[in-house]
Amino acid sequence: MTESPPLSGQQVRDARKGAGLSLRQLANLAGLSRATIHLIENGAPISDRSAARLRAVLPDLKPPASRLERLEAEVTDLRTRLDALTQGAA
């Protein structure tokens, strides 16, 4: 298993805001306290456990390989839809 790159508080804040989540909403989803999220976003060290929980609920924090796999799946899905549309139009 490859190790995920470390997270910064700014990455967490940007990902949270990008997902349209409040501190409390993210805390509830990740199983962490609101205070923990606040501390992380303001520069406190992030434990491996907290990082894993945050990555599980914020797609923008997933390691690059996971994002690539997700994009490849989306491209495959779009190709399938496009094929279905073009076959139906023919």
Structure description:
This protein is an all-alpha fold and 90 residues long. The protein has a single domain, classed as lambda repressor-like DNA-binding domains (434 Repressor (Amino-terminal Domain)), CATH 1.10.260. The chain is built from five helices and no strands. Helix 1 crosses helix 3. The model has no long low-confidence stretch (mean pLDDT 87).
Please specify the SSE layout and strand pairing.
Layout: H1 9-18, H2 23-30, H3 34-41, H4 48-57, H5 64-89
Helix pairs in contact: 1-3, 2-3
Mean pLDDT: 87
Number of strands: 0
Supply the number of structural domains.
1
What is the CATH T-level topology? 434 Repressor (Amino-terminal Domain)
Report the uncertain regions: none
CATH architecture: Orthogonal Bundle
Specify the CATH homologous superfamily: lambda repressor-like DNA-binding domains
- Top CATH class: Mainly Alpha
Would you summarize the structure shown here?
This protein has 90 residues and is mostly helical.
